[in-house]
Amino acid sequence: MALELPDNVRITKLDAIANWCRKYSLWPMPFATACCGIELMATGASRNDIARFGAEVFRFSPRQADLMIVAGRVPIKMMPVLQRIWLQMHEPKWCISMGACASTGGVFDTYAVVQGIDRFIPVDIYVPGCPPRPEQLIQAIVDLQEKIQREGTVMGREFVDPERQKPPLAMRPEGRAGLPGVIASQPLDGEHFA
Amino acid sequence: MDVPGIVQLLQKEFPSLSWSEFRGQVRVCVSRDRLFLLLQTLKEQHGFDMLADITCVDYLYYLQKMPGRFGLVYVLTNTQTNQRIVVRTFLDEPELVAPSVTPLWEAANWLEREVWDMFGIRFAGHPDLRRILLPDGFTSHPLRKDYPLQGLGERNNFPVIRRAES
Ligand code: SF4
Q1: CA geometry: angle at A20 spanning A123 and A66, to 5°?
Q2: CATH of the domain at B143
Q3: Closest chain A residue to B132, measured at CA
């Protein structure tokens, strides 16, 4: 009886098992550049204990991590570093943008601070707050686990979904024209600091 | 000797030296040509052996009329007597060059690089005048008053990494 099942039933199950394994063994890469990093450390410490959710193994090598937690503002000098670390992480990988600064630039609307990391790298979960409380970060991890269970696939097909390739509105040609100081005809992947 | 006394001594050698005092802090103002000589005299004859800071002020939209657009500020300390003196000089466009004081104090190296980075003032004779805070490819000097707060688009100019590429 079991042998007569069509292939796709088994594949779906494999996805579910893989997602279940992945969601409870997230290894975060703490990209903590500012004050939010302190809350990130508090989340890892004993009172809040991120280990209860299987995400306590903070790895400072991107090769060993699969969850990038960007905690803090990212200046223009740091953005190439962030992108490089993101590219060095292995699939499957996810990104949490923690705090107002990482998500939008926060109060630092200046020449030196990138106005949201989602303009240049993909982000899965945003955590509002300045800084977000550890409970909020834990909620983000729980939400991410749900998301992994819901849409994850063994082969990572969900990552090549065309909907997810779109840059955020601010970085699309029509949105980009409205940004202060940006020349509309500038190519999207032009030279840094042209 | 107290600092105003030192300044009066200096005025014999530098007749054009103007000075003022505010709450016990003495500021002297000197022309660029005599700046290096004055700092050297202060260091070698009056014991101001420590360079605490070099910084700059852009007076572009300042209400008062200043002798030049940029005011270079040197803060010196005498580590024996704890006296302090502030030396200022004014620069104007297009000749934004000041003599480097790295021969007097090694500490001036990074301080002058910072002033170059933020205000675009060159230091003649500096051994390694590169940007120190901003990325190498940056083309502006952001602490100038005519530089917009939100920049000229540098912060939006990165490649966009899409989900599938990574
Ligand atoms: S969001 Fe607030 S706490 Fe977090 S990095 Fe920005 S300023 Fe600091």
Answers
A1: 40
A2: 3.30.460.80
A3: A77
